[in-house]
């Protein structure tokens, strides 16, 4: 059997039901994604990518099939998936799988929600589609992890694995909801492999296009499934073929066993972790270390210089180019800065330790934060490099103005595999996010609806509780 046929058979078996831990996990993925989508809508500048995408999709028009999260607006399912996926990734607050270092839910959940509403699917069917789509996304990402590189080859080559693999996972979940059999799901994934894309230079030097990547993956996944439903076919060797997915993206270097070993028995979905802080995940261990030193009494005004040691691969994202990281161009760009996030952890803070208010325009323009960020050097650390990407780690070394030397090492960031967020912390994260645009009663009603997804007869109406009054 080819890789795509194995994945398609796995997807099709999802219709027979899921283990209870997987169902419980999926409802958490949906809740976290909705919270992220709601919080993003606090950003109303017309130049925000989700606002731009929404205007574009509204101009396209078409049938009213699927809801835009938070808005009194329905669009064709691919367009709704595009807008909602852009919202899901807008704050860089979406979940992360290790060691693939990708964010599965921001592409798969918006695609599955849009299709489930358009076809009249049940909550249980939505859960099945999200579980299957996320698992396939994670497994394709895992195939790119090469131990000799200690990194994902997607990342090394500048590809955004999230949007590339997420397109295929979104297509699988969408095809399942459209009622396609295993052959149809395989064709949907085979088509989607021609649609996945995304480069990550914006992580380093700015630009807003990265925030659209998950939206486009969701849009492409829904479109690929619809094409398969109408008779378009994909190649049977789309992944391992001479001109297939892995040759095109990874020069033929990949771990096939990571895709299929234990498929349906060992769920990589359960290894997908939630972010406690709304910034690039590579910044999180540095934030943890700064918060720990702050808790011991370190004050920002005491700092003479800081050395942030991280793994070699993340350093290129959060430490280079240096001049861009100590004085980021935009609040969003600051989310990819080791110096800015460490400075903010020592000066600001909120939510679960660092929150959205630390990336507002006023925080971003705070000269005290920028002056402290300029005292931070980001350097490679051998131990962190050994631990990456199974865990995100960092060491913070501080010299104070009175000559003291302080150090704190984090071996696995909070929210990571060794220190996952608790159910209560996940609920707190959702409430903090939703409360930025919804009354507490509406946020609670939406959370109750999501927890009841497995028994819900129709997904339609799920998002009614999430309507923003000003939208």
Task: Explain this structure.
- The protein is α+β, with helices and mostly antiparallel strands and 471 residues long.
- It folds into 2 domains: 3-274 and 422-466, 2-methylcitrate dehydratase PrpD, CATH 1.10.4100; 281-410, 60s Ribosomal Protein L30, Chain: A.
- The protein has 23 helices and 10 strands.
- It has helices at residues 3-13, 20-40, 49-60, 77-89, 105-119, 123-142, 153-156, 161-177, 182-192, 201-205, 213-229, 245-250, 256-260, 284-295, 312-318, 322-326, 331-334, 338-347, 361-364, 367-373, 382-387, 423-434, 440-451, and strands spanning 66-67, 74-75, 96-97, 145-146, 151-152, 272-273, 303-310, 376-380, 394-400, 405-410.
- It has a 4-stranded mixed beta sheet.
- The longest helix has 21 residues, at 20-40.
- The protein is globular, with a radius of gyration of 21 Å.
- The N and C termini lie far apart (49 Å).
- The mean pLDDT is 96.
Q: What is the strand and helix layout of this fold?
A:
Layout: H1 3-13, H2 20-40, H3 49-60, E1 66-67, E2 74-75, H4 77-89, E3 96-97, H5 105-119, H6 123-142, E4 145-146, E5 151-152, H7 153-156, H8 161-177, H9 182-192, H10 201-205, H11 213-229, H12 245-250, H13 256-260, E6 272-273, H14 284-295, E7 303-310, H15 312-318, H16 322-326, H17 331-334, H18 338-347, H19 361-364, H20 367-373, E8 376-380, H21 382-387, E9 394-400, E10 405-410, H22 423-434, H23 440-451
Parallel strand pairs: 7-8
Antiparallel strand pairs: 1-2, 3-6, 4-5, 7-9, 9-10
Helix pairs in contact: 1-9, 2-4, 2-6, 2-22, 3-4, 4-5, 4-11, 5-6, 5-8, 5-11, 6-8, 8-9, 8-11, 9-11, 14-18, 18-20
């Amino acid at each position: 059997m080819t890789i795509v046929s194995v994945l398609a058979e796995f997807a099709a078996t999802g219709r027979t039901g899921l283990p209870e831990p997987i169902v419980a996990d999926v409802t958490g993925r949906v809740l976290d994604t909705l919270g992220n989508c709601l919080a993003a809508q606090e950003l109303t500048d017309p130049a925000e990518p989700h606002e731009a995408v929404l205007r574009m999709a509204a101009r396209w028009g078409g049938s009213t099939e699927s809801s835009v999260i938070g808005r009194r607006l329905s669009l064709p399912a691919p367009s709704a998936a595009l807008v909602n996926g852009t919202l899901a990734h807008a704050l860089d607050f979406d979940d992360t799988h290790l060691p693939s270092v990708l964010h599965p839910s921001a592409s798969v959940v918006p695609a599955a929600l849009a299709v489930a509403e358009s076809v009249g699917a049940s909550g249980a069917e939505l859960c099945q589609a999200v579980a299957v789509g996320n698992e396939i996304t994670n497994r394709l990402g895992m195939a790119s992890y090469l131990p000799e590189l200690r990194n994902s080859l997607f990342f090394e080559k500048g590809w955004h694995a999230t949007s590339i693999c997420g397109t295929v996972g979104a297509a699988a979940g969408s095809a399942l909801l459209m009622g396609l059999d295993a052959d149809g799901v395989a064709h949907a994934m085979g088509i989607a492999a021609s649609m996945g894309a995304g480069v990550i230079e914006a992580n380093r030097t700015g630009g807003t296009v990265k925030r659209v990547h998950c939206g486009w993956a969701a849009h492409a996944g829904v479109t690929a499934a619809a094409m398969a439903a109408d008779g378009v076919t994909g190649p049977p060797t789309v992944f391992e073929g001479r001109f297939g997915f892995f040759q095109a993206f990874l020069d033929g270097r990949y771990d096939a066993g990571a895709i299929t070993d234990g498929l349906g028995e060992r769920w990589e979905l359960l290894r997908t972790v939630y972010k406690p802080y709304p910034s690039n995940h590579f910044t999180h261990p540095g934030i943890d270390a700064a918060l720990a030193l702050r808790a011991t009494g370190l004050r920002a005004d005491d700092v003479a210089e800081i050395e942030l040691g991280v793994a070699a691969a993340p350093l290129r994202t959060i430490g280079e180019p240096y001049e861009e990281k100590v004085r980021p161009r935009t609040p969003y760009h600051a989310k990819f800065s080791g110096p800015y996030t460490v400075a903010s952890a020592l000066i600001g803070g909120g939510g679960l330790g660092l929150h959205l208010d630390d990336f507002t325009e006023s925080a971003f323009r705070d000269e005290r934060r920028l002056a402290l960020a300029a005292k931070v050097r980001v350097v490679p650390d051998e131990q962190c490099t050994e631990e990456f990407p199974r865990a995100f780690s960092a060491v913070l070394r501080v010299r104070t103005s009175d000559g003291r030397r302080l150090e704190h090492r984090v071996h696995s960031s909070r929210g990571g595999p060794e220190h996952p967020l608790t159910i209560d912390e996940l609920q707190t994260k959702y409430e903090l996010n939703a409360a930025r645009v919804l009354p507490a009663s509406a946020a609670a009603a939406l959370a109750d609806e999501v927890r009841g997804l497995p028994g819900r007869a129709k997904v339609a109406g799920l998002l009614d509780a999430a309507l923003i009054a000003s939208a």
